[in-house]
Amino acid sequence: MVAARYTVPRMKAIVLAALAALTLQSQAPLPKGQMPDLGRPTKPGDALPPFDADSYFPGTWRFEWDVPEGALGDAGRIEGTTTYKALGGGKFDAATNATGAWGAFTLHEVLTYEKDDKKVSRSATDSRGFAYQQTGTIGGDLGGFWNIYLEATPFTFNGHSIRIKHNMRLLSPLNYKVGVTVSVDGGPFKNYGNPWWRKDPTA
After folding, report:
1. CA-CA distance, 124 to 134, in Å (whole number)?
2. Residue 105 has pLDDT above 90, yes or no
């Protein structure tokens, strides 16, 4: 019986195929959406399951934020990461490290989710010298989209009284978008950008 002979290109192809198979096997499965598979189109009377914050937030998220010039700092792009850790009881620790138009800074947050009441609160401390509290509600639809609307207590920064509103749009298990509006010295709320957070499923 004659032994099979493999050319160098064929051997390379076999090795590459084996490595690709091992890579696919070692990758963690991507997170699934929170809406159940009903096996049919949704109907108006279908119940909306509660938001599962424990499966959504924990992990490392990367973000980009294009900010205008204003009371919070210069115009430009801010980039960084936010890492959420579950503390239990609906509480999450969020540590943000950022750099860009506002220099290098950190933001420490504690987010609390009250599932039964569909309420969310957040305390935030910015390394640039200010802190604020936020409260709001969470709502969703049968398409799998969730919105968290948060309003902050006033705080003082660079001689100005500032209020911030955040509208967090949880669009998928791996990304959310935040609509940010800011009021300065009691004036109208103005658009302050729409940063994206994208989750690193391997982190």
Report:
1. 8
2. yes
Distance CA 150, CA 153 (A): 10
**Is 116:107 a contact under the CB 8 Å cutoff?**
no
- Tell me the sheet residues that pair with 152: 134
- Residue 164, helix vs strand vs coil: strand
pLDDT at position 140, please? 86
Hey, is 148 helix, strand or coil? Answer: strand
Within 10 A of 43 (CB to CB), how many other CB atoms are there? 8
pLDDT for residue 43 is more than 70: no
Taking the model in full, what pTM does it have? 0.79
What is the number of residues in the chain? 203
pLDDT digits (tens, 9 = 90+) for 151-191: 999 999 999 999 999 999 999 999 999 999 999 999 999 99
Rounded-to-integer distance, Cα 152 and Cα 131, Å: 10
Residues linked to residue 135 through DSSP beta bridges, in sequence order: 121, 151
How many angstroms separate the CA atoms of 59 and 154, rounded? Answer: 30
Locate the domains of the chain by residue range. 57-199
- Decide if pLDDT at 128 tops 50: yes
Looking at the domain that runs over 57-199, which CATH code has it been given? 2.40.128.20
Collapse the DSSP code of 100 into the 3-class scheme (helix H, G, I; strand E, B; otherwise coil) and give the result: strand
